[in-house]
C-alpha cells in the first residue's frame, strides 16, 4: 500500500495526526528532501528504508514503490494537491494496479497566512484567492499568466516564484494592480528560520534581493494585507445562520 502524505509546511508538529501515524508504520519512506523537514523521519521505524527524492527521477521513485512489499509513505511538502507532482505517480499506480491513498497536509499557503497573521478573504476587499506561479522553466497555460490573473484584484498567493520577483511585480502591475499594493514574502513559513518581508509590489524584488531570498518562499499580494474592510456577516448579530437565529 502506498500513502501520499502531506508533510505540512515545515514545523514538525504541523503534520496531521494521520500523517504522523503513517510515518511510524512505514516500511519505506520516500521524502522530498528539498522541502520536507527531515526531523519528521525521526519517528520512522528503526528498520525503515528512507530515500530522498531530490536525488531521484520519476522512474527511480516508481521502482522503489514497485519493489516495496509493505507500507510505503511518499512524503510531499505542504499539501500534496498543490504543485506536488502526485498525479503522474498516481496515474502509473492506477495503470499497474498498485493501491494508494492520499493524506492531506497543511499547505505552506496556510503556514504563511499564520506567520503574517493575515486573513486572505476579507469582506469588501477580496473574497477569492488565486493560487498561481510565475512562468519560469515550467510554463503556464495561456490565459493564466500573472498579468491576466491580476485583472481580478483578488488576493494572490504565488508559489515557486521567489527567483522571479521582478517578473511578478512587472506582470501584476501591468495587469492592473497599483504599484503600492501591499505584498509580503514569507520565507520558510513555520520553520525555525522563518523570515517575513512586508513591502509593496513596487519594492518587492529590491526588498527580496536585499534580504537574499530567492527560494523556499511564497509571495502574497493583495489589499487584504493592509486595508479597511467590512465586518464579516458570519458574526453579525442581525444575520441569521443555520446555528443562530435573528435576535
Ligand atoms: N505542496 C506544497 C507546495 C510545493 S511547491 C504546499 O502545499 O505548500 C514548492 C513551493 O512551495 C516553494 O517554491 C515555495 O514557493 C512554496 N513553499 C513550500 N514550503 C514553504 C514554506 N515553508 N514557506 C514558504 N514557501 C514554501
Short description:
24% of the residues lie in helices and 20% in strands. The protein is α/β, with parallel strands linked by helices and 247 residues long. The mean pLDDT is 95.
Detail the topology: elements first, then pairings.
Elements: E1 2-6, H1 17-25, E2 28-31, E3 49-52, H2 58-66, E4 72-76, H3 87-96, E5 100-103, H4 108-116, E6 129-133, H5 146-149, E7 155-159, H6 165-174, E8 182-187, E9 195-200, H7 204-211, E10 217-221
Parallel strand pairs: 1-4, 1-5, 2-3, 2-4, 6-7
Antiparallel strand pairs: 7-10, 8-9, 8-10
* CATH structural architecture of the largest domain: 2-Layer Sandwich
Number of strands: 10
Strand content: 15-25%
Overall structural domain count: 2
Rg estimate, integer Å:
20 Å
Helix content: 10-25%
How many distinct helices? 7
Structural write-up:
By secondary structure, the chain is of the alpha/beta class. The protein has two domains: 2-103, Tetrapyrrole methylase, N-terminal domain (Cobalt-precorrin-4 Transmethylase, domain 1); 108-225, 2-Layer Sandwich (Methyltransferase, Cobalt-precorrin-4 Transmethylase, Domain 2). The chain is 24% helix and 20% strand. It is built from seven helices and ten strands. The strands form two sheets. The protein has a five-stranded parallel beta sheet with strand order 3-2-4-1-5, with helices on both faces. It is globular and about 55 Å long. The mean pLDDT is 95. Bound molecules: S-adenosyl-L-homocysteine. S-adenosyl-L-homocysteine (SAH) binds at residues 9-10, 35, 77-79, 82-84, 107-108, 111-112, 159-160, 186, 188-191, 216-218.
